[in-house]
Structure formats: C-alpha cells, structure tokens
Design a protein that fits this description.
By secondary structure, the protein is of the alpha+beta class. The chain folds into three domains: 4-42 and 153-224 and 323-359, FAD/NAD(P)-binding domain; 49-149 and 226-318, D-Amino Acid Oxidase, subunit A, domain 2 (D-Amino Acid Oxidase, Chain A, domain 2, 2-Layer Sandwich), CATH 3.30.9; 384-484, Helicase, Ruva Protein, domain 3, CATH 1.10.8. Helices cover 31% and strands 26% of the residues. It has helices spanning 13-24, 53-57, 61-77, 98-111, 151-164, 210-217, 285-296, 350-359, 387-397, 403-413, 417-421, 440-449, 455-462, 471-484, and strands at residues 4-9, 29-33, 48-49, 82-90, 121-124, 140-149, 168-171, 173-180, 184-190, 193-204, 226-236, 244-248, 254-260, 264-274, 310-318, 327-331, 339-343, 433-434, 438-439. The strands form three sheets. Strands 3, 4, 5, 6, 11, 12, 13, 14 and 15 form a nine-stranded mixed beta sheet that branches. Strands 1, 2, 7, 8, 9, 10, 16 and 17 form an eight-stranded mixed beta sheet that branches. The chain has a two-stranded antiparallel ribbon with strand order 18-19. It starts with a strand and ends with a helix. The chain binds flavin-adenine dinucleotide.
Amino acid sequence: MADYDLAIIGGGLNGVSVARDAAGRGLRVILLEQGDLAAAASSASSRLIHGDLAVLERRAFLRVRAALAERDIWLRIAPHLVRPARFVIPEHSEERPSWLLRTGLLLYDRLASRSRLPASATVDLTHHPIGNALKRPFGTAFEYSDGVVDDSRLVVLNAVDAAERGAVIRTGARCVRADRLDIWRLATIDRGHRQVVTARALVNATGAWTASVAETVLRMPLPSLRAAQMSQIVVRRLFDTDNVYVFQNRDRRLIFASPYERDFTLIGTVGHAFKGDPAAVSMAASEVAYLCDAANRYFRERVEPSDVIRTVSGANMVINPAARDGAMAFDHRRGSAPLLTIFGGDVTTSRLRAEEAVSRLTPFYPMSPRWTAKTPLPGGDFASDKFDDEVERARARWRFLGESEARRLVAAYGTRLKAVLGDAGSRADLGPAFGAELTGAEVRYLMTCEWARFPDDILWRRSKLGLTMLAPDREALAQFMKASA
Ligand SMILES: Cc1cc2nc3c(=O)[nH]c(=O)nc-3n(C[C@H](O)[C@H](O)[C@H](O)COP(=O)(O)OP(=O)(O)OC[C@H]3O[C@@H](n4cnc5c(N)ncnc54)[C@H](O)[C@@H]3O)c2cc1C
C-alpha cells in the first residue's frame, strides 16, 4: 500500500491548486516543494484576474467567457486576496480606433453577463480623477471591470486549505528521483535528509523545471517544450486612484500599470523565450527601458530605469508562447502508476485547471465531486463588497491598528486575522516590531501556519514588506526567526 494517493512535485500555483482540490475530494496528498511556496513563476505574475482583452482580440471567446466566470468565482471565494478594480484604457489617436475598443468592451460585458461587476463605460478624463496622472492629450478613456490578486498569497492560502483538509505540504523538499512501478517511489532531499515516499499517482507541477524534472527525475523525457519568461517593474506610486491603467503600446501589446502594495506601481508585462536556470530569471535592461517608455507615453510623471525599485520575473513552460496557454498531459499506461503533468496557464484559470486535472484521476480512485468553486479559501468567508466592513471590524477590535495597516492585514488574512493578532490589546502585546508594521505575532503565525522559514519567505511572498523594510529590521527579523525555529 502506498503512503499517499497523490504526490505532487512543485509548490507553485498549479501544484497547490491540485493539492487543495484533491485533498478536498478525499485523497491522501503530499506536496513536495524544493524551496518556498510560490518562490518561482507564481509570485511573478501580472496579478490580474481577468478575461484578458488580448485573448478577446484573438477571438478566443469561449476562453474569455470561462476566465470571466473564474474571475467571479475568485471574488466569491477569496474576497480578501482578489479585489475588483476598474481598468482604464485611455484612447490614443495612433492606436486602436475608439469604435473598436468600445465594441470589444461591449462584447467583454456580454461574455461576463452573469457578473455583478459594473459594465464598461466611457470616461471624460478632463473631468475625472483618473485623468490627473495622465498627459494632457488624453481626453477620453474606456473603463471596464476586472480584478487584481495577491498572487503569492493565493498560492500560500491554497496550500493552507489543502493542509487543513489533510494534505502534507513539505517545503525545502526536493524530489531527486521518481521510480515508476505500480506505485510511484519518490526519493527526496528534505531539509538535508534523504527520504522516500510512495504514492499511487504523481503530478509533475514544476513549472519551468517541468522538462528537466521529466528527464532527470522521472527519466521520461517530454517532447520538446519551450520556456518563456515574463517580467514587470515596480516603481514608486504614479497615481492616487485604485484603477488599473491599460496602455496600448506601439507594438499593439497592452501594458498594465496597477497599484502595488499601497505606495508603489507595478508595470508589465514584457516577455520572451527563456533558456537557462529557472531559479535565476532576470530582466534585461532593454525590457526595463521598454516598460518605462510605455509608461512615459501616458503618465505625466516620467519613469526612468533608475527609478525602478524592483524587477519581478518568472519563467514557465509554454505550448504557444504568444497564447501563454497552460497544458496538461495524462499518462496512464497499464500496470504503471498514473502521471499527470501540468504547467503554465494564467492565474485566473488555475482553480479550473486543477479541478480538471484531479477529475482525470476519477477512474483510479473513488472521490467526492468538484467542490472548490463554492468553498472560500481560508479567511475568505465574507462577501466581496464587505471588505471595507471587515477593515472597520478589525479596527474596532484591535484599536491600535491604523487604517492602511488594517487594510493590509485584512487583505492578507481576511477573517483569520484573529488567529494572527489574538487578544492583543495594544501593539506591545504583539511582540517585537520589525519596521513599521511587521510584528513578532505575525511572524510567529507565518512560521507556524504558513511554512515561512526565512525572512524572504515573509518579506516577498507572505507579504511584500520587503519593499519598505530597512536593513537593521531585516537583520532583527532574521535573528528572531532563527531563535523561533
Ligand atoms: C510567459 C508567461 C507569462 C505569464 N503571464 C501571466 C499573466 O499575465 N497573468 C497571469 O495570471 N499569469 C501569467 N502567467 C502564469 C503564471 O505566472 C504561472 O505560470 C502560474 O503561476 C503557474 O505556475 P506553476 O505552478 O506552473 O509554476 P511555478 O510557480 O514556477 O512553480 C513550480 C515549482 O516547482 C518547484 N520545483 C521544481 N523542481 C522541483 C523538484 N525537483 N522538487 C520539488 N520542487 C520542485 C519550483 O521550486 C517551483 O516553486 C504567465 C506565465 C508565463 C510563462
């Protein structure tokens, strides 16, 4: 008898989504991640939860409709992590004509006809706050609804939910060999120790490592797969509203500029084919310049490459680099344990992809029906339009919380905030402070309940406090985590 029904290699969004789905359907699941959860492509997405206008332009209407339905599911099951936003496309005389944009957005509205989000609209920028940040010539813009997500927290909360449904989540556990018999026998290096686990089926969800894991760990090379990388830049906040700006660039690519962690703006995406070590994906200077130029066509405030505070890059396998489609392959030869390979695809459709992946295993196990579309992620058991009420409730209960701090905490933990802050009556009750916001209580919670082991796990994936934390506070955090491990 195997130790587990399903072993998953890879703790990115695809791996944890499969783990959540399968654990909730009653399978005994183990997930092995060589580093931290979301350490690779899954914390480098454009953070958009959308039907994707670029896909609409390629006339993939069914795909857009499916993604819009997923967008609305996310707003229901993860109202803390996924926030609705009004996206704004300024009309540009040298780009797509206004009739085309208007028709496209009407179609977008139709494809999202069951959504509760407001429909698209035309905005006079000369009399609207969203025009303030833009250069003068832009008189009109088109506004439509989509969503923005905290991508790395989405990964972590999928893993938390999977674990609460019985899945074993092991970070710092690299799978180095997988032998395929009538069950899988996996050798792992788990925090320096060699261990063996067995499972009835295996999922290879290793993103940009998919081909190398297939070749060297599974010894079952895949037909030639290509990798692509995507990159974004983070700059200081360029505008005061909560909108996401969508800029048409000269090469017809759509460039997004979205609010990022209160004081910053995320601008992206630019991508190209990728070769090399997926653990060391970096952005070329020409790509940084490209995104700065795109922003400078529209924003009043100039952005130079020297203003870039951080670049965010990730790589994944792709079938079609232009379409960024995800892929899934199921191998179930007679007498051999099944193997599922899953990679790429948008964040928006990750839940559905995992649901379809696990459903492929139904001939092999008795399992309960699909469930993830209706069950909130941890902390997400409130209505999307009640986010502000949750913030108010948090401030009433923990009176020492400032407005923006409460917003960050509710966005991260939702209704689970009480597990982080407990009965604290003052800031001093939360233990040592690392910078303005991070406290010992939060760090302990992240180490105990969310697999945080090192400062970067907290500063860049469980939060983005690394953007503002000073070196002495980082050092103090490192010491505190070492002592608490
Ligand atoms: C070019 C491109 C553009 C994209 N643009 C967007 C976008 O605009 N919007 C959007 O929503 N999404 C976008 N995405 C999708 C998104 O960023 C990711 O593809 C998605 O998060 C799924 O990631 P994953 O789980 O497949 O891979 P990853 O997040 O990379 O996870 C794979 C994990 O496997 C682990 N691993 C590897 N080998 C081993 C081993 N031997 N043992 C244990 N663990 C191992 C790695 O450490 C890693 O954490 C884009 C993807 C690509 C490729």
